[in-house]
């Protein structure tokens, strides 16, 4: 395969390389065409965000670029190096997006992998000008040189190998997103909507009209959900009556499920009681017997510290924007909810490790058992932007946090919630480790496959074992 590879520049394999509109089109809220810049290019696709502007048909026809079906987009201004495949979207390109119309005999996904490789990313960083806002010229884009197989079939085979790994990475990440959504849904069901409390009340013979006025809407929704679930269960049982083996096995499995469900419902009361604050619970109603405690009674808030004098190491350092780097020392070891003090106030994080936080991020120490995961999901339901006390920079204070009123269920229920979330997190952790290994494999293979250094047959066994 090596003797069939040649060195080319982007200009040699492209019909045209150009950038987008230098200027601002006339925006229209009712428009159906989007104005795309480099920050819209993410993970190989064009991503439409809430902040993405729209234009009408007249502006679209006036400013659109002629992109062919083999086009690739690359961000060249501001955040440089993002890559996306163009798939006939009706868009206008801004000046921070460069388009590359490849020739017909060039497999664009192969070139896209080249452009995501360290070889190209290092090249554009080196070529970029500007101290505040980086910019890569079209001239430098056209001059970028790399190796490519003359035979398009070889290009396709290399892409198939890399896409196989990327698919597994994507599926792992999607699975982890689903697991986290399940955890959030469980918290909402138990501690926001109080579904098991309504279930217990209905099972005790109450009707919707028996609930206080403030609870009747939620009670009606829960009753409708129960009716629909019972109907679906009946339909499933009818379908499972044949073959006979299923009819024997299914009731046992169903009974086990019901027993667990009943055990969980047994941890909840069957009545509500009114509290003094109408903003707590459902219009001021909470499950009977549950307490209301101040945040300060549940978690101890600690300030992060400067990290600049720390050497590199194995302990993660977190700021309000997320993971910053790894250092030689840590501030705290164990479960903690991390809460931004300045910056992105909504970036609440859960960690269970030895870590360091900088001065823009609070960390917390639990004051009771099984409270950290509960508090993490509870804080995720709050609107921290409304609690901002800063003017120029969004800010949070310990005074605001410590005064928060938190519904505190029984210790037994907190333990059950903690155990259930641990099952979710173990699965997420396993998927994350597998994903990290796949990323290392892909990043190792990528430069070798796109340069012809590695034969495709040499990669098969490594990929199939991941």
Please characterize this protein's 3D structure:
This protein has helices at residues 10-13, 57-63, 108-116, 118-127, 138-143, 152-191, 195-203, 213-239, 244-265, 295-298, 372-380, 398-403, 411-449, 460-464; strands at residues 5-9, 14-19, 33-36, 41-42, 45-46, 54-55, 71-75, 83-85, 91-93, 97-102, 145-149, 272-274, 285-287, 291-294, 299-302, 312-319, 322-327, 332-340, 349-357, 361-366, 405-408. It is an alpha+beta fold and 466 residues long. Strands 15-20-18-19-16-17 form a six-stranded mixed beta sheet. Strands 2-10-7-8 form a four-stranded antiparallel beta sheet. Strands 6-3-9 form a three-stranded mixed beta sheet. A hairpin with an 8-residue loop joins strand 18 (332-340) and strand 19 (349-357). The model is unreliable at 244-254 (pLDDT under 50).
Number of strand segments: 21
> Structural class, from helix and strand content?
alpha+beta
Rg, alpha carbons = 28 Å
Helix coverage percent of residues? 40-55%
Mean pLDDT: 90
Spatially, the strands of the biggest sheet line up as 15-20-18-19-16-17
The CA-CA distance between the termini, in Å, is 26 Å
The number of helical runs is: 14
Question: Secondary-structure map with pairings?
Answer:
Blueprint: E1 5-9, H1 10-13, E2 14-19, E3 33-36, E4 41-42, E5 45-46, E6 54-55, H2 57-63, E7 71-75, E8 83-85, E9 91-93, E10 97-102, H3 108-116, H4 118-127, H5 138-143, E11 145-149, H6 152-191, H7 195-203, H8 213-239, H9 244-265, E12 272-274, E13 285-287, E14 291-294, H10 295-298, E15 299-302, E16 312-319, E17 322-327, E18 332-340, E19 349-357, E20 361-366, H11 372-380, H12 398-403, E21 405-408, H13 411-449, H14 460-464
Parallel strand pairs: 3-9, 16-19
Antiparallel strand pairs: 1-11, 2-10, 3-6, 4-5, 7-8, 7-10, 12-13, 14-21, 15-20, 16-17, 18-19, 18-20
């Amino acid at each position: 395969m090596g003797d069939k590879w040649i060195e080319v520049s982007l200009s040699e394999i492209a019909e045209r390389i150009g950038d987008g509109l230098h200027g601002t089109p006339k925006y229209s809220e009712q428009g159906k065409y989007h104005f795309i810049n480099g920050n819209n290019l993410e993970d190989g696709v064009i991503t439409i965000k809430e902040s993405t502007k729209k234009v009408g048909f007249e502006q679209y026809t006036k400013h659109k670029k002629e992109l062919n079906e083999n086009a690739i987009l690359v961000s060249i201004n501001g955040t440089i190096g993002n890559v996306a495949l163009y798939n006939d979207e009706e868009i206008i390109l801004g000046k921070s997006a460069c388009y590359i119309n490849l020739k017909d005999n060039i497999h664009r996904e192969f070139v896209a992998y080249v452009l995501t490789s360290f070889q190209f990313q290092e090249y554009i960083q080196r070529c970029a000008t500007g101290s505040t806002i980086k910019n890569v010229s079209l001239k430098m884009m056209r001059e970028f040189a790399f190796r490519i197989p003359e035979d398009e079939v070889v290009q396709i085979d290399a892409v198939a190998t890399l896409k196989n790994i990327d698919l597994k990475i994507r599926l792992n990440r999607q699975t982890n997103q689903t697991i986290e959504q399940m955890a959030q849904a469980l918290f909402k069901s138990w501690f926001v909507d109080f579904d098991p409390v309504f279930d217990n009340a209905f099972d005790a013979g109450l009707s919707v009209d028996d609930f206080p006025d403030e609870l009747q809407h939620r009670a009606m929704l829960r009753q409708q959900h129960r009716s629909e679930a019972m109907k679906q269960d009946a339909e499933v049982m009818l379908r499972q009556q044949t073959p006979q083996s299923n009819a024997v096995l299914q009731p046992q499995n169903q009974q086990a499920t019901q027993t667990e469900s009943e055990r969980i419902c047994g941890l909840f009361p069957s009545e509500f009681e009114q509290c003094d604050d109408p903003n707590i619970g459902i219009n001021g109603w909470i499950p009977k017997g549950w307490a209301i405690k101040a945040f300060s009674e549940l978690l101890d808030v600690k300030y992060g510290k400067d990290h600049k004098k720390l050497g590199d190491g194995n302990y993660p350092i977190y700021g309000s924007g997320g993971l910053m780097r790894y250092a030689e020392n840590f501030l705290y070891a164990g479960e903690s909810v991390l809460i931004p003090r300045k910056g992105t106030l909504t970036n609440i994080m859960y960690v269970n490790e030895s870590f360091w936080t900088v001065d823009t991020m609070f960390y917390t120490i639990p004051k009771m058992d099984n409270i950290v995961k509960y508090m993490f999901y509870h804080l995720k339901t709050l609107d921290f932007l409304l609690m901002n006390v800063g003017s120029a920079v969004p800010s949070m204070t310990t005074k605001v946090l410590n005064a928060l009123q938190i519904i505190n269920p029984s210790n037994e229920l907190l333990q059950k919630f903690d155990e259930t979330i641990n099952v979710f997190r173990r699965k997420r952790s396993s998927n994350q480790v597998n994903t990290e290994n796949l990323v290392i494999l892909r990043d190792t293979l990528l430069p070798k496959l796109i340069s012809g250094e590695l034969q495709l047959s040499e990669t098969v066994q490594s990929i199939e074992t991941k």
